[in-house]
Structures
1.
Amino acid sequence: MSEVKKTPPAPGGGAGESPGGRRDPGGGWTRFVTARPRLTLLVALVLTALAVLAGGGVADRMGSGGWEDPAAESSYATGALEREFPGSQPNVLLLVDAGKAGVDDPAVAAEARRLTARLAAEPGVEGVGSYWAGGSPALRSEDGTKAVVAARIAGEEKAAGDILDRIAPAYRGTHGPVEVTLGGGLAVRHEMQTIIQEDLLRAELIALPVTLVLLVMVFGSAVAALLPLGVGIVAILGTNAVLRGITEFTDVSVFAQNLTTALGLGLAIDYALFVVRRYREELAAGAEPPAAVRTTLRTAGRTVLFSALTVAVSLAAMLVFPQYFLRSFAYAGIAVVLLAAAAALTLLPAALVLLGHRVDALDLRRLLRRRRAPARDTGAATGWSRAADLVMRRAPVFAVLTTAGLVLLGLPFLGVKFGTADDRQLPATATSRIVQEELRAGFPGDPGGSLTVLAEGPATPAEYGAYRERVAALDGIVRVDGPVVSGTGADTHAYYSVVPDGPATGEGAQRAVGELRAADAPFTTSVTGQAAVLVDSKDAIADRLPWAAGIIVLVTLLLVFLLTGSVLIPVQAVVLNALSLTAMFGAVVWVFQDGHLSGLLGFTATGDIETTLPVLMFCVAFGLSMDYGVFLLSRIKEEYDTTGDHEGAVRFGLARTGGLITAAAVILAVVMVAIGTSRVTNTKMLGLGVALAVLMDAMVVRSLLVPAVMKLTGRLTWWAPGPLRRFHDRFGISESGQPPAAATDTPEERREPVGARG
């Protein structure tokens, strides 16, 4: 094989050609942005203003559920029961506290019946029942001081929430001899939605000023520090407009707004750091601002676009799941990633052209240090370069110890238990949670833990009775109520209420779901309830998880191959990214499931993890890890294409991007921790867990494990078989903008050319 020789690009290069003479496919866009920066900014600002108008009130159109599979048996049964027996599925409860007088006191009973009748007359409210109407012992507390009025507010979630807001003030509070508080599933979800919106605003107020301070510390210049924030705000506002449009066609979870804020700021900062850093390098090399921007777009701009695609693919994998909770994060994530990249490649370059050398204006660090001439960051004498040398000299030690440490941190996840989100997600002071706690502690059985068996088709009273006896004889069944029958002939519907022993979603309740579904019956049956929803949700995730993982892995392998031309590096990227997530998953179980640090962090441990959260956290954290991986690999590949020196390329790549990746990770972690201050446990878990994963990836995997592994694999790192090499030569991407170099098998086939590097 002939020696491959390359020369580094001249500063600025041609507007439409790569330094290697190939036509740059992005040259037209580059010329437009650099030639008409004011027009570019004006168009972007107009579109942003329209996005503000279009995205207004998006949170009010979002839901707070979405954990169930809409095609599951439990979802079908719930829908049928809502149509045929509204009273069987109450979602609003009035907890009536009679105090020492007791719920059977005549004055208390009269007031309770008046409240029941008044609630039944409210528009949109149906299926109203109460202890005083039917005398059910399940609706009376064991000490006789409290009882329940149950009702259902019909309609989709947003409309039902509006009705609840309208009627709640009239019932909450003191009514003669009783005190009334509101609870139930609808009240829990509605209060959760309100708290999430309040917490998101607080997180933004925390994250923005702290992020600005960190950016000033990283850039030195206040002007440069404001640019990433501008990109992030544009991405967030644009994503809100996209989500507002999506709500016209499907359900979107309110939790997705947290991801919009976190990724909008985090990725915008990542991309802006990378672009501005490269722009400053070109200015330091003597290029004029327009030429520096052109080179930056042709090099770092390609990497930003490539990185955005890898993150978007990881988030898009959640579209394969049926739960709209997960799909919502895919909608928000894809939109915010692509908009952040678009803003970083349009608004930011246009602003850099207009600012020119003034991008370094208002250097606030001069107040803290004596002025001195800035040293060029060549990487040869930096701490990152020395760290890379140390790691590569002791590569086996660092590789083994780092891998073992990460695996050890992930071991608690082997004991994970999956559950469903309930009122305990809310802070202990939330009214709807207080009501549910009263019901769990003071009423017979677990009022929210019963399973409902829907029976469809004609049957005789004897057949109904025989089935009831068969169900009551099953292991772990405490009580069976019913049947309640409606309709005649083929249109006959009935339901039984089955109370299993133990917690509502415990292992006993989940076993009972399987036994009820397997039990012989003279009619068609379907089972719903909290445990049934959990079983169906776990099955849906298990069925589709291989597809999601396959999409992420295959597309990641392809994209990293296009970036590097190597067969081994894509495999390394997938494995090392997965290792970077072990600490996050171990911490999720140790902290949020087992309850360690629950007092310090202010949440209630439920002994399980909501089923969809690990999937969400994996997709988000894996995508962010790939983001940093692409930044590092692109600079290593650029240097390797120029010099052919494998270890020198690893050293150079880490020296050039180590501080950048660490700064970006710290800033993103600050944003995620701000999200993690939420009073809702799932949001807290998402924010703190992803923050930990990002820091572990940047400070451990990228700094220690990647250089150690690349040292061990040596020049074999860049090997690819002939057909794949030719494919990469034709379709591959390189930050240097040069034709990708063919990987070689022996050191003699590559020599370092004379000339400056990078």
2.
Amino acid sequence: MTEVTPRPLVPTERGDRPADRERTHTVPYAAGVARRGPLAVGQTNMIRCILRDDPVQINIHDVWPAPDGTSVAAALDALRVLVERHEALRTTFPHRSGDLPGEQHVAAEGTFEVTERPQHADAYAGAPHRYAEAVARRAREGRFRLGRDFPLRLTLLTRDGVVSHVALAASHAAVDGTALAVLHEEWRTLVAGVPLAAATARTPLDLAAEETSAAGQRKSEASLRYWERVLRTAPQAMFAEPRLRAGDASTAQLSLRSARAGRALRAAAARTGSPVPTVLLAAWCTLAAHRAGQDTCVAAAPTSNRNRSGLARSVTTLSQDALLSLDMSGPTFDAVLRRTWGAALDAYRHSRFDSVRLWDMIGSVTRERGSRFARDVVFNDVSSVPATSVGTAEPVQDDEAHELSLLWGPEQDLPTRLLTFVHAVEPELRLSLWADPALFTRQEAEGQLTGLVRLLEAVAHTDVPLETLTDVTGVRPAPRDADWHQVDGCWISRSAVEQAVSEAAGSLPAHVAVTGGPEGAGSEGAGPDGVGSRLVAFVAAAPDGRAPTSHDIHTALMTQVALRSELLAPHHYVIVPHAPRDATDTAAWHRLPVLTEGNGRRRPM
């Protein structure tokens, strides 16, 4: 096995030469043979998001504290070794504007730039990591030009010529959070003067070759079938409730450190005979579903692909969701736990797919179902990957056990409602939570984490009935009044659907009835499961006889459904000549003659 050792490096510099001024180093690299080939599915998935989403949301960042005494030359040379070692850092994706790339190009040689920024005492007020975090976050702004940009924006923060931190932002087309963790670990090894063993993890091109094989295509097809089944049967959105406001909001990070939770996790695993990560996933899903008032927990698990052979330390982006659909009907925590392992395995083995075909399928399924797919809940357990500061508000600076501590960190824009990163499960539980302020006050976000600790402590000793979760955890389900119903497994506001139908029909009078299932929700959010419930929309024609078709109404309505979690398109539309005297009387609408009717969900032939 060969070794990779830093070699002397004299980078070129630009900028002012005084030691207290920012400068730019241009670092050359030479890595061997240029290569090209198709994209791996994880790359395609992230590039699709990069071309669509705000760069602040899709770019990622990290902060690497440097070992004491790290020189600028050693830091730069270690970065050069990483670029030569990992093809993903030498990869570009040529493409025409507006098109997805069809090929990736790996360069054999080239240069990249690193900014050196001396830190001043007044710049970070005695909190160098927070200053580095701010620098890294600012670097997320602006799109990476996929066809030509180096995928890392690197800044060395120095004091008196010695590196204190590396602050960086990264293109999600090149690396994911776990890949950054691997790079961080290897960089620290290199600046310490220790050579690295030859890399054995799969490269992006190796992975793409495997995925485009016949066996890889069969796995992708199976994954698409699994996703379609979940999308047709599970809740369209975990969080649909009265106080949810439209629009994105910056979400603050809340970090938990708890030795109590770590002890409880180990005790619960011993009592139930289940692995610690499975117990934690079951507890987290139980509490998330309880807060949302759902009988199914639908959660994305982006790190699932790292569990496959040869990919644990692969430096590329493997960010494709495992879509977990976990039955939360209980009646106890242990019953949920018994289902969790199988549900997680089912999700993990169906987490590699053609993302373009997936989103085409999501579009057709949601139209036919009259719903929207909301990636509301994300659970990212990175506790088994190399230690890294990614996703944490502050690095762990001491070995003191924290029985239970909470720390608020910086805000960022996230396209999800509830995001959790698990950093460690022993000896203490360490995780970070981002809870959408449109749903959770700061007190409620803190309550979600302390409630998780309380649940773990309870299940460490005994099985817990789900009906007692509010008392055990202190977390209350979302309040919903009688206007809210579960239809087709989704929470909807009947009055909101009715108003949306009227708007979709050109402001004609409309009435929406919930039929075929029990009515009402109750203030605690515990309502019917929605099995058999259907939405029927009645629309009155205009006085001049103008009447839209069910297809026209449904098409217009779906533009609203795509933006609002409380809406579900009706299963059936009935067009009548006029509204009854009492527009709230469902029976009166039924007695009117029918001009035309249809479901609107199927495209006309």
3.
Amino acid sequence: MHRSLHGRGPLFDTDPPGLAARLVGARPYQLRSSPYEHQDDLPFVVFTGGRGLGKSALLAEIRTAYQGHTPIALVDGEEAQFAGPPANRPREAWSPVAQALTTVAEQLAEPVKGAGRISFPRLASGLLAVAAGGWSDRNVARIRQEAERILLLNDSRSFLDGLAGRWVSKVIAKLVASLSNAGPVVEPIIEASLEAFSEGVAPTHRRLRRAATWFRDYPNAGGNPKLGLILLSGHFRAGGDSRTHAERFLVRALLADLDDAYTGVMQRSHRLGRPVVLIDNVQAPAGRGLMEAVLRDRADGLGDQVVFFSALRGKTHPALRNAGRRTLAEVARTTGWEPGSSPSSRALLVSLPPLTPDDTLHMVGALCRGLDVPPQLPHATHRLTGGSPLGITLLSESARQNLPSGAGSLGTLLTGDVALHADHDGRPAYRELLDRLVPGGRLDELTVLAAAHDRDSALALAEDRLPDDFGAAGVLGLQQRLTEEGWPTADGQFVGDPFLRALLLLRLHHLDADHAQWQAVHRAVIDHYGERATADAARYRLHHELALGEADLAVAHLRDTFPGTEVGAWLRSLVFVASAPYYHAHDPEGHDFDGHDHRAAVALGRTDQAQRPPEGVDAALHLRVRRLLHAVWQLTDPLVLPDPEVAERLRFELEQLSNLRPGGTALLWRASRDWPSDALAGRPLRVPGDDEGGGQG
């Protein structure tokens, strides 16, 4: 199998067949049939997840796997063509759904191996009636252009076929001739098109006649296809629920045309599997309109045999409240899906998991073949990205381009330039990632709020560092946007996803050469918690002091609380405080200096002699806690490769501390065994006995 995606086997497997093969009835990448799992009712599959999880790449790979084997179409609901009507076309005669139907039909019409083109006469008739609602200005050039695109959906011959072109030209001439100098144009256009569809005795014309009469079943048409098309056009122009009703009938026309192409023994014997429609960003108006029309008709008993795979940004949607839910792994061999009575129950939400460390290892190895890759780079990449396919892919590409010039850490790979296209200049990898993960504005505001820990601290930061017109409404709006786009939440962090937060904080650090904004933001958070005496407030203050390079307060706090604090709570505080971001200085172009990371030197005791512990404290404990803090800070930093020598020193320091707390010896000793190996393998540092990792606060 020639598959470019990692970690998506449950969809693309062929033996035993994965989800795609069981629904489509054909093995991906192969001209071979596969048994159907669902013979009649089909689930409308919706892949869910936040940005960067590879939903778009997944749909693109499905198209690659089946293109040329079975009719297949891919549309993105957020494409510019669905944002508004073309120039000079009235909005009342255009909608994202109608535009999407045209685009889908054009792709499905392409011939596949062993079978010719599919024609869409029903859909073309409806689209022509809709378009005619915007032709009152008698702009002949625009009418010809719009009519030609629609009419070319009618013919089963190639668009390049001279006969098809002549037929279209003839019909367009008839349509233009039907226009008078005044009065409505919809009825004359519909009359002319029905007349053109009724001419001739060839199989193509018989198919056109049969399709034209299909609209006699439009509600209140009374068996009159002309009246049905007139009503359809009027409902579309009316907008609102009336337009939704008309769009639903247009979707039904597309599916009826596809059913025609598969009707009869000869037709089916020449076609492999089922047709496939792929809808990216199905939450956008174009995608949602298509999805809801299909779900409603299927719930009403109007079945079809089209396989729909779509991608939803986030975890759920109001239109999918009763949908079935599975993980990708759970649909590897069977969906276990059965429809209910509601339209949304006809959908099946399939959540995409992050990639595994092994997937990351293979991806880095594939892109960096022939390069001297640091052995810990793949695991560190997985730790930083959390398994984000986008993050892993772009970091691997940066490694391919920047390792030869001396880049040796994830920080330098993120700040190093990466050129994603041969004809474009490179730009820092972290900026490329943020452009994809945080499109749509408010990146500056989110960059500042990434330093916040909850809504209160975010509001304080907004008041101190952001424009007056942003305020509480802006904070709440960004918080809602993060949730809607599928980003996870985390206690103690306003931006819950560690990868996104790391990228935002890196951008904050690089906003100016002297790091003035970095310092101001962290000082504002420190001031916000300055008057509070809670344990959380203390941890947050120390975390931000450490982010400013000031470790003395953190050392003093951890030293003084060690004797009396429950050991598990003390270890959690240590890990959270040490999760403070640490960045080298950078040059005016934004690239990190290959400067000295002083944390390793402190952790290894090389600076002990220059230290003078405060009067009246246990000097040995003070220095040990100082070494331990810097060891955890270095080993858990997502932007550097963990130092094996520091990991060994971490083991030693925790082991020595276990001798000082008889009641907590077991926890400290267990941590001395687990933490070094976890850090080197790119795993979070977990406090022994905790069900959840304690490394993110």
4.
Amino acid sequence: MHGDGPADGVLDAILGDGAALAATRTSGEGPSGRLPIDDATLRQAPSGDLFGMTQNAGMGWRASEIAREPYLILSTQGGLRAEDGRPVALGLHTGHWEIDKLVRAAAETLAGEGGLPFSVMCSDPCDGRTQGTTGMFDSLPYRNDAAMTMRRLVRSLPTRRGVLGIATCDKGLPAMMLALAGCGELPGVIVPGGVTLPARGAEDTAKVQTIGARYAHGLIDLEHAAAMGCRACGSPGGGCQFLGTAATSQVIAEALGVALPHSALAPSGEPVWLDMARRSALALVRLAQAGTPLAAILTRQALENALVVHAAFGGSTNLLLHVPAIAHAAGLAPPTVADWTAANRATPRLVDALPNGPRHHPTVQVFMAGGVPEVMLHLRDMGLLHLDAPTVSGRSVGENLEWWERSEARRIARQRLRDLDGVDPDHVIRGPDAARAAGLTSALVFPVGNLAPEGSVIKATSIDPNVVDADNVYRHTGPARVFASEHEAIAAIKRKGPGAVVAGDVVVLAGCGPAGTGMEETYQLTSALKYLPWGKHVPVLTDARFSGVSTGACIGHVGPEALAGGPIGRLRDGDRVRIEIDRNTLQGRIDFVGTDPAQPLAPEEAAAVLATRAVHPAIAPHPRLPADTRLWAALQEASGGTWGGCVYDVDAIVETLRAGREALARRHARAEAD
């Protein structure tokens, strides 16, 4: 053995001494009983059905009940917990950490209703854990991969009567909704995985992600950073405490009618959360008995309801990627920018929650104030909902709202919020007049201009009101600070002295769209700027995307992306960038206006200047971009790109491949002729 190898005792522990072989069996007793089959079953059933029964018995289910109707529970459970909840192996995030409790409660309910429950899982990543790392390159592509895997798991139980999808967090729940939408012939119900409780005397999980930037600028000390970084989670499970992508996805599931009323944003681990899983399982059985498939619920009317609810919540801009993808999976026409704009013009933001403010209520308080059905009561009274749209409760949207309005659940939840937190639920979820009076304007604006000819998006309600003019228009013109990587940008934001980003700059992060980094999130930048005193005076412009918790004058999804020839990739340091966001008309522009502050160019003239430039020399695909993500980027681009939801349109991909093969064949033929 080499001198630097393990010592003998360590080697024995690794290789073993054979003692365990002494107790190893070579045969065992098979399950007792008989399969519930007859002559016709043996003659006509596929061998897979018969072997499936054998497997069910082998796993220990009672032989007399093996022929029950099977239901599949599909979850994003991650990690391994002991019976008392202690971690045996950690999950990647709290969002999937306690989901096993929901699976158990649902399975027991299905069995109690005479069904045969099956449980499979496809876990999910944490966008917070991968912020600022190469792990972010797999974040958005994961959604498509997971949805395909989930659908394959559903189809792998050919006899299933229905599917219960249990998930939360930024990519797991969108993937689950895509998966179930693509299985529209089946009954299905979404069980949102819930939210984490805020911790008393601690920072929330959004603010705590900025301890590095705040420490670098001397705003906090090491002791504070270490303490707050430890204490942010008031419960071990659930999605983050703010209305980011995870929470917004739960809201959208309920707004679409595929989750039960008042199921989104339930606090993980609490009795109401477990009860919701049981009731969701019961609803699935009733849908199967009634023969109601998901296709009957995921309709155009449901999609339009979801857009209006998203606007009323002021939800994450990442749903611009996920809602069109859900629609595509369901065989519906994806919503257009015009559809999103119409929904946002119809209603102001009605919900005051983290990160939008102004009072920054955590998501559990939104739930206790009435959550999605409470918001939908206001939207109903505004005439903005399709009330006859069916839902998984077995009732229409209108019937659900009539129940909620007079329910004991509503009274108890809202009163408990008053009693426990001293919070008036009508200050968390407001009517439209009260919302406008409080300054809660419509959320999404889709700026265009010579830097974004295909469009871009900003959550206009998240702009600090102190930098918005009296006419409710945000205006900023400043020099570009161009970065080709998030690492370089955050370093310049943390830096002091020469090379540092300063108030008035426009941070331009280019080359970080699908082809560059898999369209990474850039929460490091937006969160740092939010908590730095001068950060509100620095807008961000990028072809990447933002976390759902991002705030500030941050404009993302700029198209075309730099690596697809987008003008954003031709900017240089010092170029003058002009931004105008009208929060009244929900219109905006982002333009390069030349290099001379004293003599700005007209947008058309400036566009001609840009067209003569080469792409910024630093912009290129990240050298560590995984091949898997490169493939995803190519496939989604052939399918309509980011504004189409980053989907896989099989027909479009096949057509593109066929055209490519034919073009290559012609090229080869010309080469041989020459």
